[in-house]
Amino acid sequence: MIGKRILLIVGGGIAAYKSCELVRLIRKQGGDVTCVLTDGGSHFVTAMTLAALSENPVHTTLWDLKNEVEMGHIQLSRAADLVVVCPATADLMARMAAGIADDLATTLLLATDKPVLAVPAMNVRMWQHAATVRNVATLRGSGVTVLDPDEGVMACGEYGPGRLPEPEAVMAAIASHLEPVQGPLTGKHILITAGPTHEPIDPVRYIANRSSGKQGFAIAAAAARAGATVTLIAGPVTLPTPPGVTRVDVETARQMDAAVDAALPADVAIMVAAVADWRSADEAQQKIKKDGSGKIPPLHLVENPDILATLAKSDRRPPLVIGFAAETNDVLAHATAKLARKGADWIVANDVATHLMGGEVNALHIVSASGVESLPEMTKDAAATALVKRISDAIA
């Protein structure tokens, strides 16, 4: 962090008070921080406080004659090593997603050529609103790193996701951007899928499975700790994004298939997601209602794309392709058959009759052309670390 320059944009929310502690942490670790205080942010913290903590002038307006004669908004946007928006309110993220530049903060964000880290904080209903979900997806798709908020009691008295992460967690995310981890997978791109897919039947019903995404997210975190560049394509789960991981959220199997293709090339693909095998052939546009006749409406199913098999046969196939198999019986026999059928290099199997989906522990069996290696029962984090160690040894 020593000598690194942070441009900190402070949005207008009660969580803005935590930005003061964040400034202190950046300075403590040897970083230089320049603050941009939005009009909303100035209702919660003062420019004088931020100036005293950062030991730099605080910028508040686009209409500063001296600065703008020198095109100050362009200089600010490009002089930093990283732009951090903390707190990133629902309004500020909406304007970022839309490309609006109607004040100093949004103009800087539109003019910057540096990486951007946004740290959301808002009411739980605002965070879960469809508009915010779309805006977050747009920002992530544009290359902005958007942290997931913490879950807990908020200033408004409601409980749920939306709290600003503690300054120490934000500081760790900043450090991971500025000082990439060096490890056995440094320079490697690891592509991981995780979680279930939801296949709509009508606007209120869908086909899904019990996957929690915990094992896939743990593998993504372990790969990032090993120095890899990690793209995590996640089905509908509420897990926080691991530090240093680029996350792409999807819902259906077809969306996941497209996201995997868009994320290539990769050095390793780890297909952990429990993708629905089938989807409804005809998604109803309105809720299917009972008509009182006692007759059950037919549900016609069609196969979803086989993401693992398609990837294994692709012209852009990663050198190491790993599939997962959640089985309830004859685990090794089914995994061995899947290895041949899918064309993968490894199949990592587990018995979900013994270790239920969504649990905290797992016992993995790594099946390859060389045979079977069975790992003992351990936490999903430990299992992820063990698997990543074997991957790094295989591609070293």
Can you walk me through this structure?
The protein is an alpha/beta fold and 396 residues long. The protein folds into 2 domains: 5-178, Flavin prenyltransferase-like (Rossmann fold, 3-Layer(aba) Sandwich); 189-395, 3-Layer(aba) Sandwich (Rossmann fold). 35% of the residues lie in helices and 24% in strands. The protein has 14 helices and 21 strands. The chain has helices at 17-28, 47-54, 65-69, 72-79, 90-98, 104-111, 124-128, 130-141, 167-178, 214-225, 253-263, 307-313, 331-342, 380-395; strands at residues 5-10, 32-37, 82-88, 116-120, 145-146, 150-153, 159-163, 189-194, 199-202, 205-207, 229-234, 245-249, 268-271, 278-280, 301-303, 320-327, 346-351, 361-362, 365-368, 371-374, 378-379. The strands form 6 sheets. The chain has an 8-stranded mixed sheet with strand order 12-11-8-13-16-17-19-20, with helices on both faces. Strand 16, helix 13 (331-342) and strand 17 (346-351) form a beta-alpha-beta unit. Helix 1 packs across helix 9 (167-178) and helix 4 packs across helix 6. The chain is globular, with a radius of gyration of 23 Å. Keywords: Decarboxylase, Flavoprotein, FMN, Ligase, Lyase, Magnesium, Metal-binding, Multifunctional enzyme. Pathway: Cofactor biosynthesis; coenzyme A biosynthesis; CoA from (R)-pantothenate: step 3/5; Cofactor biosynthesis; coenzyme A biosynthesis; CoA from (R)-pantothenate: step 2/5.
